[in-house]
Amino acid sequence: MGTSNAPAAGHALAILTLLARHATPVAAATIARELGLPRSTTYHLLTVLVEQQYAVHLPEERRYGLGVAAYELGSAYTRQAPLQRLARPRLTRLADACGHNAHLAVLHGPDVLYVIEERVAGRPSLVTDAGVRLPATLTASGLAILAALPAAQVRALFPSREAFVQRHEQGPRSLVELRRVLTDTRGRGYAVEDGLVTPGLASVASAVLDHSGHPVAGVAVTYPADRDLRIEAVVRLVRQTAAELSARLGHRDQGRSPVG
What we know:
Layout: H1 6-21, H2 28-35, H3 39-51, E1 55-58, E2 63-66, H4 68-79, H5 82-98, E3 101-108, E4 111-118, E5 133-135, H6 140-147, H7 151-157, H8 175-188, E6 191-194, E7 201-209, E8 215-224, H9 231-248
Antiparallel strand pairs: 1-2, 3-4, 3-8, 4-5, 6-7, 7-8
Helix pairs in contact: 1-3, 2-3, 5-9, 6-8
Organism: Serinicoccus hydrothermalis
Keywords: DNA-binding, Signal, Transcription, Transcription regulation
Protein name: Transcriptional regulator, IclR family
């Protein structure tokens, strides 16, 4: 693409970004006004985007929305698993640096699904292998993610006492108890789990945030709870790894800690 086409490409991407931000289709005049573009340029770019199926024109409403090609791009992004690709080398470095097992988990309903497990030779075998699901309220990764979610979303995930699962007869049993744990997590700046998953083992975790500030994963390290350990150093490494991943996903730190 020649340099003369660069501004047009940038404007087209700006239009797609604007359409993605709106919950409903948008009028061309609104697009032109919000982006500060001439109406003629806006209509020309919209015509090209519609022809290429990145946008769709709704003539009855005189508005534009995202097209099927934009959906296909998003699906391809998901298929390529960029989070796991970005996270794996960083999880390897994290495990090497702290000398303990490190893992990455994503929220799956009220549970967390472990997608990466980096083990250190000689360390205890864990139940958090890749593909394993555990209640989010019992894991450091899950608590870090939940602490970064809006209160309404947490309430929707745990609408009643029946939604809470205990392990070894421990863990939050109600939304009130969970909120207390999440408040402590936010105040501390990272999540902690001690013996809830496996007696004798503890974990610390921090949330990975995407470009919108939404928590997409939790980075955690698990270690023997009864050992004399410099936990501050482990916490620093975990938070540093989560912050680095967040930055790679487009998150711009504005003073918010990715514990969440």
